[in-house]
What does this fold into?
Amino acid sequence: MKTNLKLPLHGIIPPLITPLLDNDTLDIKGLERLIEHTISGGVHGIFILGTTGEFASISYKLRRELTERTCKLVKGRVPVLVGITDSAFTESLNLAKIAANCGADAVVLAPPYYFAASQPELLEYLQRIMTQMPLPLFLYNIPSHTKVMLAPETVKAAAEIPGIIGMKDSSSDLAYFKQVQYALKDRDDFTFMVGPEEFMAEFVLTGGHGGVNGGANLFPKLYVDLYEAAVKRDFKIIHELQQKVMQISSSIYNIGNYGSSYLKGLKCALSVRGICSDFMAEPFHRFNKPEREKIEAALNALELQ
Amino acid sequence: MKTNLKLPLHGIIPPLITPLLDNDTLDIKGLERLIEHTISGGVHGIFILGTTGEFASISYKLRRELTERTCKLVKGRVPVLVGITDSAFTESLNLAKIAANCGADAVVLAPPYYFAASQPELLEYLQRIMTQMPLPLFLYNIPSHTKVMLAPETVKAAAEIPGIIGMKDSSSDLAYFKQVQYALKDRDDFTFMVGPEEFMAEFVLTGGHGGVNGGANLFPKLYVDLYEAAVKRDFKIIHELQQKVMQISSSIYNIGNYGSSYLKGLKCALSVRGICSDFMAEPFHRFNKPEREKIEAALNALELQ
Amino acid sequence: MKTNLKLPLHGIIPPLITPLLDNDTLDIKGLERLIEHTISGGVHGIFILGTTGEFASISYKLRRELTERTCKLVKGRVPVLVGITDSAFTESLNLAKIAANCGADAVVLAPPYYFAASQPELLEYLQRIMTQMPLPLFLYNIPSHTKVMLAPETVKAAAEIPGIIGMKDSSSDLAYFKQVQYALKDRDDFTFMVGPEEFMAEFVLTGGHGGVNGGANLFPKLYVDLYEAAVKRDFKIIHELQQKVMQISSSIYNIGNYGSSYLKGLKCALSVRGICSDFMAEPFHRFNKPEREKIEAALNALELQ
Amino acid sequence: MKTNLKLPLHGIIPPLITPLLDNDTLDIKGLERLIEHTISGGVHGIFILGTTGEFASISYKLRRELTERTCKLVKGRVPVLVGITDSAFTESLNLAKIAANCGADAVVLAPPYYFAASQPELLEYLQRIMTQMPLPLFLYNIPSHTKVMLAPETVKAAAEIPGIIGMKDSSSDLAYFKQVQYALKDRDDFTFMVGPEEFMAEFVLTGGHGGVNGGANLFPKLYVDLYEAAVKRDFKIIHELQQKVMQISSSIYNIGNYGSSYLKGLKCALSVRGICSDFMAEPFHRFNKPEREKIEAALNALELQ
It folds into this structure.
C-alpha cells in the first residue's frame, strides 16, 4: 500500500468533534470554523469519526457527508484520518472506500464493539479486513467502549500486516502502552499516539509520537505548544502548559455525573466560544443552562484566548 | 399505535440465527429451511436481528434483505419481530421503517452499545425514538453487550411511553427481572420474555410469558413443549425436557474457550443437521473440524430428532 | 468426614446479620432476640458470617465470639453454618477450627477475595484447604464480591473432594446455577441453596433445596412459608407470598444510591422492629433519620407481623 | 502526628515480596538477604505487606512477625512502610499499632476490599480510622483488587485529614493520577508514588516523587538508577535503563495465562538468583520447572548482575 504520509506521524491530531444541528444534520458552518480553528492552531493532522466525534451515534449518510466535507475543507493542508470503526465488517470497508475516494490519508479502526472478540479472533479479523483496505490503517484501542484490549502480542502480529502503520491508545493505561511500544521497539516507522491529554507530554518525552487529544478541538495551539515543548524537553514550558491542560481536564470535562461529561463539556465549550453548535447525537444531550454557565466560568478562569 | 398483536405475547420466539454464505451474502435456502423448521416446530413468533442473529456484524443492506425475506417467508403465520438495535439513532429508525414496510409486527431495541448512557439519558433516548417509531417495540436488556442495565425504574417509566409493549431480558439475572416484573405488576398487557433457556420454565411457572431461546432454532419443538409443560405445570414433563435443554447448553454451547462458543456451537449444529450454513460474520469464524466433530457427537447423544 | 447433617439440607437458612453496638462490640441481646425470632419463624438452619453478616468487616475476635455465642444460643435446635471466607488460607482454617470447637455443623467458604485466582488455582486451593478442614463445607459463589465465578466444571471437580457437601450461589445468575446443578445431576446428596430471595421459589420448584435469603432475618415465617408452598407447588400461595417478598425487595433494599442499600435497609428494618441494633461495621454506616422513616413506612405498608 | 520522615518522600521504595517457606512460615534467611539486597541497591525505603507482599494471603501472626523482623533488620537505614489494608477496620488498626510498636515509619492503606464502598463512605471511613491511627498514612489506590477507585475529590478531601501524607497509585491509569496530583497541586508536602514500573520514569520527569516498583526487589539498583536519571533528566540513561525495565516486564512478569503471572515470575526470579524461596501463599502456587526455566533464560538474557 502506497502512502504519501511521512511515517511515523508526529504531533497533535485532534479527534474532531462532529458539529451537529440535529441528530441527522451537520453544522456545516461550524465544521468549517472548527477545521480552520484547529489548523490555524498548528495541528499536525485531523481525525474525524473517532469517539470524540460521536461516530457510533450518527448515520452512515452523515459519516459519508462529514468525510467528504472535511477532506474538501482541509484541502491537503494536513493529513486527514477517518474513523471506520463499526460492529459490521462490511460497513467498516464501505467507510474506508468513501474515505479513500474523498482523498483521506488513513483510516482508524477499533475492534468491533458489540461482540467482544478474543485475541485470535481479533487478529484474524484484522488480517481479513486488510486484504480489502484501500488506505493505511491505525489501530485504535479503547477497551472502555469496545470491551476488549488489544493485547501487546496482538498488536505486534498486526503490525506485520501490510498497511497497518500505527496505533492510537485510549486505554489510559500507560504501562500497557509502553509494553506495546516495547514489543514493537524495532519498528521505527510505526506511529504511537496517545489519547488522554493529561499525560501526552510524558508520553512524548520518552519516545511517543504525539497525541490525539480532545482538548485540541478547543485550544489547538496549547496542545501543539505542549507537544513541541515535550519534543524540545523544555520542562519549564511543559509544566506551565500542562497545568493549563489539567485545568481544562478538571473544570471542563467533569461537570455532572455522566460518563459523557467529557464530550458534553467539550462540545459546550466550543459552543460558548462561538465555534460550533453543541448539539449532541442520541443517546446524549447537550448541557442545560446551569452547566453551561459552569463551562463559561471555567473558560474565563483559563485565561487562554 | 395500532397493532394486531394479541398482548401480552406468549410462548417461544426463537432469536433466529442469520444463515450466511459469506460476510455479505444470505444463505437464502438455509433461511427458508430454518423458518419452516421453526414454524413447523410450533414456535409462537420469529425474532430476527437479535444478538443470536449477529445483527451487529452484518451490513445494513443485509439487514434489510433479511427483513424482507423473512416477512415474505413467514407470510403472517406467526408474528415477526425485528431487531433495530444500533449505536446510531437514525439507523435504528431506518431499520424500523424497513420492518414496518415489510409487514413485521414489532421491533426490538437494546440501548445504543458504543456509548454507555446513564439511566436518564436512556429514558430520554427512548422517549425521543418512540415519537417516530412506526411499530410497537420491545425493550431488550443485554448488559454483557451494551454495558448498561435497564434499571427497573427506567423500564417502568419507559412502559408508559405509547408503543412500548414488552421486554426481553438477556441479563441472566432473574432477581433483576423479577424486580422489573414487580415494578410493572399492574400492567397485564406488558410482555416479559426471557433470553436464557436454562431457566425459561421457571420463569414461565411464576408468570413469565415465554422465552426468546437460541436453542429453539435447533429443536423448536423441545422448547415449545417445555413452555407448554410450564404453562400446564406438568412437572414430570418439565423435568424431562429441561434435562434435554441443559444437555444442549452443556454440550453444544460451551466448546472451546470463546465468548462466542454459544453462537458458534448453535450455527455449527444447524449446519450438521443440514438446515443452514455455519458461516459466521466477522469477527467470528465457524468451528473447524475437531470442534464440529464434538458437535456431531453431542447431537447424537441428545437423541432428539 | 462424619456429619449428623441429613443431606442434602433443605429449606430456609437465613444469612444472619451481625448485630453490633459498635465496630468491635456485639449487640448480645440483639443477637439473642434475632436467633429466637428466626428459629421461632421456622427456619431450617442459621448461617452466620456471610456477606449479610458483614463477616469481612469485623475482627477475628468478634468472629470467634459470634460463633461461640450463636452455637450456644441455638443449642442444636437447627444446624449452624459458619462462614470462614478469608483472603488468608490460615485464617480460614483458624475460623473453621473455632466453628468445630463450638459445635457448628458446617462451614461456608467463598474464594479468597483480594487476589482473583484462576479456576485451576481455585480447585487446588480447595483441595489443599480440605485436607485440614474439620467440618463439612459449602462452597459459596459471590462473584460481585470475590471477582471470580466458580465455573461449573470447578464445582464438579470440587464436589469430588470429601467434605464438600453443597453450594450457595449468590451470583443471581440462574442460568449459571442450573448449569452447576446439571453438572452434578448424579449427586443427590449435594445441597444447592440460592442467595437471591426474589427467585427462591422458582429455584425450589424445579429441584433446588432452598434459600439463604437475607429477608428471613426480618420475616422468617414469610420465607419458610414461601419455601413450603414451592415444595408443595401451591401456586396460589406462592404468588401471594412472592408478592410480599418482592415488595420487601423493592421498598426496603433499595433506598439511596448505595451498593450497600440492601444491607443498610435490612439492618435498619430489624432495628425499627426492635430486634437488634442497626449499627454497621466500617466502611458502612447506618441510615440516618430520613431513610429510617422510609423504612418505617415500607414496613407498615407490608402489613406483615 | 509527628514524624521524622522528610516529606515528601522520594525515590524507589520496593513493595517487598514476602519470602515464605510454607503457607504460614517466613523464610527468615531469605527475608534478611532480600532486605540487604535492596538496601545495598540504594532503595529509599522498604514497603512490606503490599499486594506484591501477598499481605492478604498470610495470617495475622505472620504479618506481625514480618513487621517485627523487617523493622529489626532494616535498623532505621531507610524508612519502613507497613501495609495495613484489611477488610476489617479493627484489624487494620491492630496492624497499625504493631507497626508503630516495631518502629515503622508509616503505614499504607487501600480501601476495604470485600465490600466496595461509595466515595462518601470511603472518606468517612478514612476520617474515622485516622482518629486512632498511630502513624502517618499513605493512601493506596488499586481498583483491580479493591473494586473501587479513590476519586480525585476523595483524595483531595482525605489529604486534609491530619496524618495522611501521601498516596501510592497502582491503577496504571496515569491520566487519573495526574488529576489527583492536580487536585493537590498546592500541597508540596504530599507524596505521590506510582506502582507500575513501566512508566515510573515518565512520572518522575514531570513531578512525581518516585516508584513503588516490584522489580526493585530483584534489581534494586536498576530502578534507583532509573529514578535518578529521571530526576536529572538524563534521557540517554533513561532510555537505556527503561529498556531493561521493559525487558523485565515483558519476559519475567508475563509467563503463563495467570492474573498472578507478575507475582509468580518475580518470586521465581528471586529464587533463581538465590535470594529467597519462591513459595507462594494460597491461592497461588509457585512456578513449575518449565516456567522456571523460562525465568532462568529471561534472567540470563537481561545481562544484569
User: Anything to note?
Assistant: The mean pLDDT of chain C is 97. The two ends of chain C are 42 Å apart (CA to CA). The CA atoms of residues 64 and 255 of chain C lie 32 Å apart. Chain C has twelve helices and ten strands.
